[in-house]
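Researcher: I'd like a candidate sequence for this fold, 184 residues long. If you have to choose between options at a position, lean toward the conservative one.
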């Protein structure tokens, strides 16, 4: 009978605890790897969304400015909330005084259309003369720190600084894009 007991097969409690310990280490490693890859995927998705939206905005702005004659760009309006170029369909309507300051009479003012970033009701939008571009992704917004840099009286090219923000409950990311365009 003793011989029969010695031949019994099975695992001991120590072996079972060793297997459970090893399995817990493997599962912790696996779960942390999955969490890290999910966070990386989300970061890539956010940055891709921002870059896609920036491509659309900047290409629309470049297309609008590139097809505009330099003589039609009357002034650069930049303040805390806005940064746009006033473009006139009839630049002869907009005259300057002897000091070179723009005379904004009714005829000139009515001929001006903004090309750039205009903030109203706390939301910055891209104005392209008669069109207003709305960002399609609700999590992405154009920040009012976006700018068009360049004085039409002294330069022939303009620097576009576009600042976009991706905001959700868990994510807040800002990214800045800088481009240069030269009107026709």
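Model: Candidate sequence:
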């Amino acid at each position: 009978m003793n011989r029969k007991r010695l031949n019994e097969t099975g695992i001991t409690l120590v072996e079972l605890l060793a297997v459970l310990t090893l399995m817990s280490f493997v599962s912790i490693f696996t779960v942390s790897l999955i969490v890290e890859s999910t966070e990386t995927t989300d970061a890539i998705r956010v940055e891709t969304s921002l870059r896609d939206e920036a491509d659309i905005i900047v290409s629309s702005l470049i297309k609008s400015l590139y097809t505009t004659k330099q003589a039609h760009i009357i002034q650069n309006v930049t303040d805390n909330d806005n940064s746009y170029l006033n473009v006139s369909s009839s630049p002869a309507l907009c005259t300057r005084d002897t000091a070179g300051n723009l005379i904004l009479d009714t005829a000139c003012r009515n001929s001006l259309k903004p090309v750039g970033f205009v903030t109203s009701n706390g939301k910055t939008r891209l104005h392209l003369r008669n069109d207003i571009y709305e960002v399609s992704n609700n999590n992405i917004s154009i920040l009012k720190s976006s700018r068009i840099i360049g004085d039409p009286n002294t330069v022939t090219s303009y620097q576009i600084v576009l600042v976009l923000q991706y905001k959700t409950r868990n994510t807040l990311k800002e990214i800045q894009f800088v481009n240069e365009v030269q009107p026709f």
